[in-house]
Write a structure and sequence with these properties.
CATH architecture of the largest domain: Alpha-Beta Horseshoe
CATH class of the largest domain: Alpha Beta
CATH topology of the largest domain: pyruvate-formate lyase- activating enzyme
Largest sheet: 6 strands, parallel
Structural class: alpha/beta
Strand order of the largest sheet: 2-1-3-4-5-6
Bound molecules: S-adenosyl-L-homocysteine, iron/sulfur cluster, FE3-S4 cluster
Number of helices: 14
Number of strands: 21
Strand content: 15-25%
Distance between the termini: 49 Å
Number of domains: 3
Shape: globular
């Protein structure tokens, strides 16, 4: 960190304190998707290499960072709530406040202008500049902005700074070129680019050596992964072949270009979980067309049929209710298809207009809030019933579960997931089992989201 004669009194005090402690202390909160969680691991690594330290206690911090999400309005509102909390503290203690991620990218100048207490704004492709910008803010009280999108940045050589645990995430591609009309991601994360496979395999081997047993490969549209002759299916199999891996998952594939080779990899490779997240969004062709999804209802069902022919592969989905111009009948088509599809789980969202998107420019956000809310709840309730029925059907049977750690509610219970990604909770029985082990659990109770059981014995998979 550079010292300069221009330091102001608060900066001097802060610099003295941080030097005594061995570096500036950073407190960081993350919102949004798994990709953002992964980016937080990258940011931690970039910052630690420059002498910053992380603290879980915000009161000890010199710097407060928010890694933000812009996908829906409620993601914005949550951030504004948090920011307001730190405005007063900043006055008292001279904190430096940074906003990173998709909202920083999307709202840029607007955030700096309307929230005067934000010091640094950095978008998802500019994290390498963060340490310099923060140092400038801390030592010279300069505000900093870095929101350039890159066609090349994949953070390939940065080793993410992750906690312990048996779950590891790897971003294999960044950005999205699909421009679904409702979605802000192509604007916040820029163009698609893929990491080279060797780097991904090396990261996988390193994670395994750190005790990771389950890897999730991440990308906004993983089917678009391409590096030379490598397709995503090719990469997925290579990752699943790494010795020591027990389970591999991926999210999300796009239904419009789901390759046969990917389906075969899921169906045939023992380490690739038999579960596919296949976002439907709507079951009505006019709405799908307006959304710019690139498939019809028929094409989606055709793909589902091909998947089901391959064996017991479980499907989950995303849905949007109340998109521009959606009639009652069009909504009903989605409702009826959800009933027919019997997804294991569905993430149901109320349409939220996003600035700069195609839908915001082209269509009117004309479905009244109560109608959006009503439709969303209708499908949530329907899906709850379906998930409950599916989970109830497992009562009396045994499922193979990978132990992931303590249950949220009690350290006397383990928590893990089935291959189909259903959460399972069961009492620890004082045996030798550890996180990462695969165990057989006898199920005796179920809710829409969780199975409850007791440990049986070690299970069939090694
Ligand atoms: N790349 C992923 C989606 C990432 S966003 C994919 O295509 O599968 C996760 C989900 O958020 C989307 O599938 C969609 O259902 C929802 N979503 C995105 N933009 C939205 C908006 N403007 N309003 C409501 N839901 C939205
Ligand atoms: Fe958004 Fe569509 Fe890209 Fe998914 S595929 S991130 S929904 S634009
Ligand atoms: Fe993820 Fe939210 Fe950005 S869902 S990609 S953090 S807008």
């Amino acid at each position: 960190m550079s010292r300069t004669p221009l330091l102001l009194p608060t900066s001097l005090k802060r610099l003295a304190a941080s030097t005594k402690r061995g570096g500036y202390q950073v407190y960081m909160e993350t919102f949004g998707c798994q990709m953002n969680e992964y980016d937080t691991e990258l940011v931690r690594s970039i910052m630690k290499a420059r002498g910053f330290q992380f603290t879980p206690v915000d009161e000890e911090a010199d710097v407060i960072l928010f890694n933000t999400c812009a996908i829906r309005e409620n993601a914005h509102n949550r951030l504004y709530g948090h920011l307001a909390r730190y405005k007063a503290r900043k006055k008292e203690r001279g904190l430096v406040i940074g906003v990173l991620g998709c909202m920083a990218q999307n709202l840029k100048q607007e955030l700096l202008e309307t929230r005067s207490w934000i010091d640094v704004l950095v978008g998802p492709d500019a994290y390498r500049r963060l340490p310099d910008l923060l140092t400038d803010a801390l030592e010279h009280q300069r505000r900093g902005l870095a929101v350039d999108l890159s066609e090349y940045e994949t953070y390939a050589q940065i080793v993410p700074d992750r906690g312990n645990g048996v779950n590891g995430w790897i971003a294999v591609m960044r950005g999205c070129d699909n421009f679904c009309s409702f979605c802000v991601v192509p604007y916040t994360r820029g163009r698609e680019r893929s990491r080279d496979p060797e780097g991904i395999l090396e990261e996988t081997r390193r994670l395994v050596s750190q005790g990771v047993r389950q890897i999730t490969l991440l990308g906004q549209n993983v089917n678009s992964y391409r590096s030379g002759a490598w397709s995503f299916a090719h990469l997925l199999v290579a990752v699943a072949d790494v010795p020591g891996i027990q389970r591999v998952r991926f999210t999300s594939p796009h239904p419009k270009d789901f390759p046969q080779a990917l389906l075969e990899a899921v169906a045939e490779h023992p380490m690739i979980c038999n579960q596919i997240h296949l976002p439907l969004q709507s079951a009505n062709d006019r709405i799908l067309e307006r959304m710019g999804r690139g498939y019809t209802r028929r094409e989606y069902l055709h793909l589902v049929e091909a998947i089901q022919k391959k064996g017991p592969i479980v499907l989950t989905t995303d849905l949007i209710c109340g998109f521009c111009g959606e009639t009652d009948e069009e909504f009903q088509e989605t409702y009826d298809l959800v009933k027919e599809m019997q997804y294991q789980a569905a993430f149901v969202f109320k349409y939220s207009e996003r600035k700069h998107t195609i839908a915001a420019r082209k269509y009117s956000d004309d479905i009244p809030e109560p109608v959006k809310g009503y439709r969303t709840n209708e499908i949530i309730e329907l899906q709850k019933e379906i998930s409950l029925q599916k989970n109830h059907a497992l009562i009396g049977s045994k499922v193979d579960v990978m132990i992931e750690g303590d249950a949220k509610k009690s350290h006397r219970q383990w928590m893990g997931h089935t291959e189909h990604n259903v959460t399972v909770v069961w009492p620890k029985d004082g045996g030798q089992e550890l996180p990462g082990d695969l165990v057989s659990i006898s199920i005796h109770d179920a809710t829409p989201s969780t199975l409850y059981g007791t440990a049986h014995s070690s299970c069939s998979v090694d």
